[in-house]
User: Fold these one by one.
Assistant:
Number 1:
Amino acid sequence: MDVNHRTLPRRKVERTVTTRSEDTQTMDHAPQLIQERSAPPATLVIFGASGDLTRRKLLPAVESLARHNRLPDQFALVGVARTPMSDEQFAESALGGRSLAEKRQLNGGIRYVAGGYDDPETFKRLAEVLDELDAQRGTSGNRLFYLSTPAGAFEPVICGLAGAGLNQESENTFSRLVIEKPYGRDLATARELDGVVHQAFEESQVFRIDHYLGKDTVQNVLALRFANSIFQPIWDRSWVDHVQITVAETLGVGTRGGFYEHAGAMRDIVQNHVLQVLALALMEPPVSFEGENLRNEKVKLLQAIRLPTDRDIADAAVRGQYTRGGTREELMAGYREEVGVDPLSRTETYAAMRLNVDNWRWAGVPFYVRTGKRLPARVTEVALQFQRPPHLPIPTSQLTELDADALVLRIQPNEGISLRFGAKVPGHSFRVRTASMDFSYENTFVEESPEAYERLLLDALIGDASLFIRSDEVQQSWRVVDPIIEHWANDRSPIPTYEAASWGPTDADRLIGRNGRKWRNAA
Ligand code: BG6
């Protein structure tokens, strides 16, 4: 995969920058990937074509790839869904309001197949359409099937594809399957789904998506750690006191109450996004960023996560549910008042955990992770807090507001990195106060980040699986969260609550506070 900054200029107007990205040396681990990347001839087939994800993320990603000349003329798009629609109506929904250039590039190559996912006729018709496109557009028999449906449709679609022979690859053609989350509800159902998938597709044909891996700043965790020499020596138990990983959202569940009721924060965010970011931040250096090498290291890290025992599970994990809160001007409904949510719901909208990683690098270092909806700030970050100096030759009275050193990787928003340290306060006395050095993507690079889905769609079309999740990674992630989800399901005590726009339940402060530590809460 390409961990270098994008070479594709997204803005015409250059701004004055302090660090020119052009001056930056590129990593030589993956030289073949530094080149401009474009998709080969292929047809993208989206199941769930009339759905929300397709409209909000997938179609804009296709459009943006077309706009940036990442798609060849021999590209086609096929939507499949139950909703009756003509090719023209689907093309209009895919391209309506878009610029003429993309229309010219994609028009004529957009088709729609209406039908039930458990009806073999749907797949027969799809196979015919794909053959027609191969003949008319030169899509060369290459197919990328994107399952953007509710999880319940995964099995019938996979069986339908196999029934129509659409899972078959030849020496010169590919057939790939992109699967959205949730991938199972727990380890057992993830294994069952793997069974269904592997009956029809080889693992090398399967691209399980976690859109966090498509974010430049998540990939930058790799660049920071492995393209530099200065961080590696301090990236271990000798220097790091603890690590905090936060995925905080200000939004509530919105219109997704029905889905969220069956997911909760642990399945929705921790099992996938949080554990992926954690694995990238803590894993050993891979030999290369080639898909299998990278994923092998992530799996090893996930395997090393120690599960809490039944006895200490209550101390190691905290859940919460938001109640009505906010300000008089902006009063926010409680979770139980949201559309599609059971008024007596016990689903968690907040989850925090303390994890330990049993390996030489990290033994004894606690990792605190948390996520929540309706928190006061939108922030996703990885913060390494370093140990205090063993001896301070300065009287404590001179240490005004001196926090421990920290390196903070800001995934979003305000993307960048900051290093927090102590500095002498100007003046006659020797006082030390916290200061920080800041790297900001926005002020440093003239290139703009592509949307996560755009990057991942292109990778799947190219066949680069490094930013997709392998079957054993999914299983390891479920292994970590399953015992906690099960413990909560069996715990009949009232679910802890937190007011909307507050930093989660007080139990979460106790979780991290046991060793005198505290959460980094943005002001
Ligand atoms: C999705 C979750 O996977 O990620 C949502 O299902 C969540 O509940 C979203 O809001 C967050 O993604 P991002 O990119 O906005 O941080």
Note: The pocket of 6-O-phosphono-beta-D-glucopyranose is lined by residues 249, 268 (CB under 6 Å).
Number 2:
Amino acid sequence: MSDSTQPTLDNLLSEERTFPPSAEFAARSNAHAEIYSWAASDRLSFWAEQARAMLDWSTPFTQVLDWSDAPVARWFADGRLNACENAVDRHVAAGRGDRVALLFEGEPGDTREITYADLQREVSKAANALQTLGVGTGDRVAIYLPMIPEAVVAMLACARIGAVHSVVFGGFSAEALRSRIDDAEASLVITADGGYRRGNPSALKPAVDEALAPGDEHDACRTVQHVLVVRRTGQAVDWVEGRDVWWHEAVGAASDQHTPVQVEAEHPLFILYTSGTTGKPKGIFHTTGGYLTQAAYTHLNVFDLKPETDVYWCTADIGWITGHSYVTYGPLVNGATQVIYEGTPDTPHQGRWWDIVQKYRVSILYTAPTAIRTFMKWGEQIPAGYDLSSLRVLGSVGEPINPEAWMWYRRVIGGDRAPIVDTWWQTETGAIMISPLPGITATKPGSAQAPLPGISAEVVDEMAEPVPNGSGGYLVLTEPWPSMLRGIWGDPQRFRDTYWSRFPGLYFAGDGAKKDADGDIWLLGRVDDVMNVSGHRLSTTEIESALVSHPMVAEAAVVGAADQTTGQAVVAFVILRAEFRDRIDEVGEGGDVAAELRAHVTKEIGPIAKPRTILVVPELPKTRSGKIMRRLLRDVAEHRTVGDVTTLADSSVMGQIAAGLGSS
Ligand code: PRX
């Protein structure tokens, strides 16, 4: 296969190159090959051992797994601990207070170096401030912040007092923020005046004000008592007296002494909303002991972290699960030193990331294939201008990485030296599930390969039977794991229906996968109506609902079409209401109608959900039972010959669509 070949199923599966770790890397590896047989021989005692090795427990647990209420797991249930204490205080208590925890690089170039001792003082002050504002154990706190140290501090401060954080990505709209605040019934919102984005201050507080504006149809304005505002950009903000409080005043005035609240292992740590196949995002919730155990264990072994010497950088925003497990919790529980960068990769120039790697001597880099493909597009002369020799492990997450991008990452960024770990997992799994171990596995470009020790995954057919090597099917997880979701906030039935009903007794991940001749797993993307755009999960239905909420739109169908850079791109097919059909001449790409609808989706959900292409069509292809046949629309969006149309209620529809597209 040539490196320039686009990934297709065939060349993806004919990949035969392997890259074993160097002898030197293997000799110093945290994990050794026996870890697989150890975990396989007694999975529960393996996890119990990890929970003891990774964490400090104020009350040691005696039970490992209680699966009697399946599919709701209870891990280490009679133990007690505090997540923040594990991430911060115990490093200080062990004499590591001077170690740098966070190396913050703001987009404008401002920097901050925060040691574990500094972090302990900051989170203690913030925890005191939250309690003064009336936040108690079990209360929900929405966090809507840019990637600044306060984001991590805010999460940890919640954990310190046993409050449940719900981080909402700063790129989401006021509407999306409001529905998440409503669903979790949050009593406090932590935000900032703004953050820096593409060289300019970008406001955040107005979205919070809008989300909390009084209205009949939502509760956000009723449940939220206070808004705590970090001053980041200094831009002007509207102020609601009695509700809004400056972070620097409340946290600044608080004592730096605070005793962490010990909670049960199954106490909820956070809720994180993610897109499902229906319009309403799901509040995935995770608890404390099992989640932290697996976040820390995977972080230590998958990245082969040496906390004393490594400088780790995960480029994810805390608004996503990767930012929870591999910025806030995993690395800090392991006592790592990590970089946090606020801004975009091309500000002020396309070498910004590599400048950061060079400046901080980053040794472990964890990012998404979309970013890698973007850098490929910009050209390898850009990273070539920087000293990247400090890098020794590279990670990939969020979407399938095509072998071409994998090889480029290895050669151009990793100097043909650093192993690549392609890590498969989900918001729901809480931590990495399928991945090579860099000191053990001979890696294969494009494959996540094997479940980690302690994890049981399979590829099964429609009948839930494991497929033989060389065949494809559905990815399932066959045994409970410590960091698994404990449910969907407020909707236990949806939890069972979504994940456990397709293959009874098995967790169905929603992904298609193949096993190659060696039994290694290749992820092939979602098999449901979930899209993956730049490694971000979007629901087709959610975007369709946003589109039809616009007065011009009668019907909408959204598909994810293959895209060279973003993996998939949002393509929307819309039927205009009759009274707007006279605007049809404004429809084409760049026309006013498309621009108006894009702006509308941005307002309803956020810029990440904005369709790349909007096609106005006279009809949508539907089955006789009225189900939209997205498969056919995907054919159109990907410029393929349209597939079998015999199940359509009206087989002339695809012809009309094609004719309509020709004219627009
Ligand atoms: O389709 C899989 C894809 O991302 C989905 C999970 O999305 P989310 O919950 O937002 O979490 C992303 C970060 C963990 C999965 O169902 N996915 C994630 N990692 C990979 C992947 N697909 C292929 N290879 C991966 N390494």
Note: The chain is about 30% helix and 20% strand.
